[in-house]
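Consider the following input, taken from an annotated entry for Helix-turn-helix domain-containing protein (Nakamurella leprariae).
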Amino acid sequence: MKPRSGPDPSASDRLRPLDAAARVTDDARGDSGAPPPDPDLVEAVDRDDELRIYSLRAVDRVVDLVEALVQAGAPVSLSTLSSSVNLPKSSTFRYLAALERRGWVRRGDHGTTYQLTAESVLGGLAPPSTPRLDRIVHQARPLLGQLCQANQLAAVLSVLEGAHVRILWLELTPSLRRLELFTTTDRPSPFMRTAAGRALVSQLADSVVHRLAEEVAAATDGTADGTTGWTSGSAPVPSAPDWLAGRALVRDLHRVRGDGFAVVDHVISGVAMRSVAVPVPGTSVALSALGPSGEVPPPRLPALVRVLRRAAVLLARRTGEP
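Applying the prediction step yields:
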């Protein structure tokens, strides 16, 4: 066998294309030895980075808006907010709309101003997001039916939205239904006009309640028509205009806070009515019993309060509240 003295030219020729390809690959890898980046992957990563940066920027803008509303401490117009956070009005409107849907922001009576809801200012009450309220209403409906039938009074579920209270669900007795008293249940009422409103604001800090009362007074020229007076337990307290005064407000607020319930005497469609309400723990909603004043005499109040409290605790448990 003839010994081989050098490389086989034919083999070298066969390997040369592979060597050239390897050199090209090594040059592309560089010193790190990593494969060259996929252009499509690079574009995707860049796009993800852009989205991440945009998301962070959106969060910053929302926080800026919330801080601007906190600093204002009063209803603010869209143009003022957009100027204070250095955003176009269109962007400011979209962010405010998202906050409004989540229950953190609400519009003023004429829809031209914005402010934080009492719940978001407090932190003690969770903002009333729609899915959460839907869950509460779903669990409350059978309880309201039982309360209505057992007490022969209207049973009401209400939510606090800023300085106003809105009825979420109402169960009526046949006699109350015939009277056709409740034709505007979807219209929010100033919190001091309802027992539910007063029970709910008693959970708020005094300073927050003062601000809410001033907002209502400014919108109603210092009055709260429709409320003739109200009681906590059996003790009478001033009428609505006097109640808005500083000392009376704090005194009666503390009384409701101590009692854990509120009672309001008012007139609905010319009929003297009395309602008693308790807050549902951990929420911005309240349960109320409502009927003609003659059917809700003071001696009956303690028993009604006990029933409402049991129902409120049960509702809180069923909806996963503490």
